[in-house]
Amino acid sequence: MKKPAQTAKKSIMRLAICLLVSVGILWYFGTVRAYARELLRPQTGDTEVSTVINPAGTAQDPEDVAGLNTINRLTLTYDGDNGSVNGALRILITLTLIALAPILIIMMTSFTRILIVLHFTRAALNTQTAPPNQILIAMSLILTFFIMEPTIARINTEAVIPFEDGTLDQKEFLEAAVAPLRDFMAPQTQTKDVALFFEISGREWDGTIEGIPTSILVPAFMISELRLAFWIGFMIYIPFIVIDMVVASTLMSMGMMMLPPTTISMPFKILLFVLADGWQLIIGELVRTFY
User: Fold this and answer.
1) Residue 35 — pLDDT band, cuts 50, 70, 90?
2) Is 206 exposed, middle or buried (0-12, 13-18, 19+ CB in 10 A)?
């Protein structure tokens, strides 16, 4: 075993070496910082001489403004390409429209009525998830695009193209883009729904379409769409209810009380729907309600 005196002596020597190395490192970095400070000092200029040539407020033209400060100067150049929308601004507008697209489609197009009617059709057939929700939504979107195509073409012609050409500012662009949508919603909206929201808001209505603000036209249009969609759904239900009643009475007369009538009536509903070409009838008449 090592003696305690020798162990203590070696520990003291190691500590002394570490202290010497630390002092040397600190001295070296201090020297480097002082040397760098000496190198940078000539580049900063004389502290007693200002870099500002002319005082603020004395500029008379763009050339004078450019010469106010010879060191700290930032120049921004904008090239609008003859008034067209900048690429970054175009991307921002596109992303904003994509984010608002679901709300606009639901509130200001034919999507709501179509989707509710298709859902009532599936419920009347009692086929549970056939067709599935994805098919109903996709069909509603396709029919919505078909119905709204003239409106979309008007928005592109009257708002988007002039805005890109620089003939419309932002406010005029919004007004021109909303006008075709208002022309689509106004004939589909009932007067009593518009009067309801005018009464709630405490404003007077002059009885004209131009006098209806968009903030009132949109909710009135939504209520009218829901009312009409539920009415069409009720009309679709009637023939299938007759089939259910006939099947139920037949089963009761045969004494089959424990057999669910819907189990027997569903194949007859599907058969009647196929023989009558139900999808063509319902979708065709549904699309005609917008014309």
Assistant:
1) very low
2) exposed
